[in-house]
């Protein structure tokens, strides 16, 4: 069993081959859509690729700008409809605190998602810790609270930015 608690484990190494991440994500998305009979149109696929361009959440405006490079006349509603589709299929997550979207690495599993967001470089890593999910559910149940959305967003400093700070401090 691989050790998920390893330091920085949720954050992909800086120099990893991101094309592999993208390909894996695209293949999963295509398979999931096919299985559900949902149509991953060219445009939806393109929006998905833009969201997945890195491990940094992307705002709708940036997505629209990037989309227009290929789909010239794309209007905001087009982007929002594509984003809604991707959200419904669980292929991406919406981060409320940043008003932006990020690709999901485990779309095959239904989950709320917990995110560690770097306030310095903007990297976001998804962790799916059942214990956190259960604690939220139990706490809400004890309070008699009906939960609508369980996505958790934690802000801080990613391992790379901490490392940069340490080396800067050490001269
Ligand atoms: Zn990657
Ligand atoms: Zn996810
Ligand atoms: Zn960072």
Total number of helices: 6
CATH class of the largest domain: Mainly Alpha
Q: What is the topology, as strand order, of the major beta sheet? A: 1-3-2
CATH superfamily of the largest domain: Winged helix-like DNA-binding domain superfamily/Winged helix DNA-binding domain
Ligands bound to this protein structure:
zinc ion
What is the averaged pLDDT score?
92
- What is the domain total for the residues? 2
Give the overall silhouette.
globular
Please give the share of residues in helix.
Answer: 40-55%
From the helix content, strand content and strand pairing, which structural class follows? Answer: alpha+beta
Overview of the structural elements:
- The chain folds into 2 domains: 16-107, Winged helix-like DNA-binding domain superfamily/Winged helix DNA-binding domain (Arc Repressor Mutant, subunit A, Orthogonal Bundle), CATH 1.10.10; 111-171, Dna Ligase, domain 1.
- The protein has helices at 18-36, 42-51, 60-68, 76-88, 130-142, 159-169; strands at 58-59, 92-95, 100-103, 114-118, 124-127, 152-156.
- The chain is built from 6 helices and 6 strands; from the N terminus they run ααβααββββαβα.
- The strands form 2 sheets. A 3-stranded antiparallel beta sheet has the order 1-3-2. Strands 5-4-6 form a 3-stranded mixed beta sheet, with no helix packed on it.
- The longest helix is centred in the N-terminal third of the chain and has 19 residues, at 18-36.
- With 171 residues, it is α+β, with helices and mostly antiparallel strands.
- Helix 2 (42-51) packs across helix 3 (60-68) and helix 2 (42-51) packs across helix 4.
- One zinc ion binds at residues 93, 104, 106, 111, 113, 126.
